[in-house]
Design goal:
Pfam families: DUF6047. There is one protein chain. The chain has 9 helices and 9 strands. By secondary structure, it is an alpha+beta fold. It has a domain of 117 residues. The chain has a 5-stranded antiparallel β-sheet with strand order 6-4-3-5-7. The C terminus is likely disordered.
């Protein structure tokens, strides 16, 4: 469910009482021309649950990540709609995709075996260099995205880089802190459908962190300072 605000209501294509199968084809060009994006994106199953439980729509308590902490929602959410197998089997009329906000980049993956493999490869690469001290984003944000434009949906392959505007059509379903702690490392690995085995170096790091408080960061940056010696061309590393 999307909410759009139009300053000029005359721009909104009319909705007829009979057949509106091509309504999105009429609406999308207007949105693009007027640079209008949704102010609220809500799953219908979330809206139905909130309505039933008296939770105010578009409030902080109605956000998907908050609902995931609600035991009743986790137990009953499939009562309000079809599950993800409908999308994976190609039967959904309006499929969603997984989008990952990675620093300034946004990646988009379809819900197929090929898309799953590409997403796993991306996450495995991040896990592999999680403790190496190289520059990486502070966090990853995962969105269930539903592009309105049918032409855009038709061009989506297993995975690709897309405009950051894409997440405006999504619902945040997970956020992963990338600070080098054991808890964050384990959370990143759990996001993979098939986590890769730990390398010898990762096993060493994990074993060094497991007995320490879970918020301790791995000291992954080696400071190397070069001090010049008295004789020209000589120096020492400390």
């Amino acid at each position: 469910m999307f909410r759009f605000d139009f300053k000029d209501k005359s721009l909104i294509p009319p909705i007829f009482g009979t057949d509106n199968a091509d309504y999105l084809e009429q609406l999308c060009p207007v949105l693009e021309r007027e640079n209008i994006y949704p102010l609220g994106v809500v799953r219908l199953r979330d809206a139905a649950f909130c309505e039933e439980r008296g939770i105010v729509h578009l409030s902080l308590s109605a956000e998907h990540t908050d609902l995931l902490e609600n035991e009743d929602y986790r137990r009953l959410r499939h009562r309000f709609g079809m599950n993800g197998d409908v999308i994976r089997s190609g039967l959904a009329a309006f499929p969603t995709y997984m989008s990952v906000e990675h620093g300034r980049k946004v990646l988009l993956f379809d819900k197929t075996d090929g898309g799953d493999r590409m997403l796993d490869e991306f996450l495995s690469g991040l896990a592999e260099r999680f403790f190496d001290g190289k520059r990486k984003p502070e966090s990853l944000r995962f969105y269930e995205v539903a592009p309105l434009n049918a032409a855009c949906r038709a061009k989506i392959g297993d995975g690709q880089t897309v405009s950051s505007d894409m997440v405006r059509y999504g619902i945040c379903v997970a956020c992963c802190d990338m600070a080098p702690t054991l808890r964050n490392f384990n959370r990143l690995r759990k996001l993979q459908r098939q986590p890769m085995p730990l390398t010898g170096e990762q096993e060493r790091i994990v074993s060094s962190l497991v007995a320490r408080p879970d918020n301790v960061r791995f000291p992954n940056v080696e400071m190397r300072v070069r001090i010049p010696a008295k004789r020209k061309g000589q120096g020492m590393n400390i």
